[in-house]
Amino acid sequence: MTNPQVLSPVTLRCQFCDTCNRVDLARAADRPKCGECSKPMLLDRPVKVSDDDFDVSILESAAPVLVDFYADWCGPCKMVASLVDEIAQEHVGKLLVAKVDTDRAPKVAGRYGIHSIPTVILFRDGEEAERSVGFEPDRVRAIAREASV
Q: Is the pTM higher than 0.70?
């Protein structure tokens, strides 16, 4: 008998070997492994995404994706980072949580008009659905909660 869970395929780059892997987010509890290096695909924490893999990882995702646009030098971004880490753990298997360093991914930051950081955007079906600018922990939690239903 087949698993009745809804498939939520996402394409993610392995943080260890940089190979792109197709992963079913709904089966995150099965602890998927990279097809190349066999190391775990860590879905209980935010995945880092760059200009090179943003479209395939975020826009082509079947699952909703919460993206934290940040920079290493930004103080408020560090406060949002711990919140986003918690959200990734709380919503594993239902919501993909990603991070985009705006200094290293200027094309994506420009495409989405990221002028202030931190900015958190929820993407559904490849489209921006919600946006939070600045440190708004309650709003970001509400966006994540609604997206993972």
A: yes
